[in-house]
Write a structure and sequence with these properties.
Blueprint lengths: L2 H23 L5 H18 L9 H25 L1
Keywords: Cell membrane, Membrane, Transmembrane, Transmembrane helix
Membrane topology: Multi-pass membrane protein
Protein name: Transglycosylase
Length: 83
């Protein structure tokens, strides 16, 4: 993986994490946490979505996958925080 690919992956993860924070809580969590949520969401979404027959390609597909995974992670975190 090249440096540019890693930078694009982190940028997409940051945007997906920020958007998930906005959608799920009304605000983001900060740049570093947004990147972490988005990157973990990308891996989680990449693992979970194919199990339901969903696959997206390209950078837009990576963003959609990361966003869906990040939203699920934020939802899980909110449920666990309340418990």
């Amino acid at each position: 993986m090249s440096v540019i690919q890693i930078a694009v992956f982190l940028l997409i993860g940051a945007l997906a994490g920020w958007l998930a924070g906005v959608v799920m809580k009304g605000r983001g969590y900060g740049v570093v946490v947004n990147i972490v949520i988005g990157v973990i969401g990308a891996f989680f979404g990449g693992w979970l979505l194919p199990k339901f027959g969903l696959r997206f390609g390209g950078e837009i597909g990576l963003f959609i996958t990361a966003f869906i995974g990040a939203v699920i992670l934020v939802a899980i975190a909110r449920v666990l925080r309340k418990a």
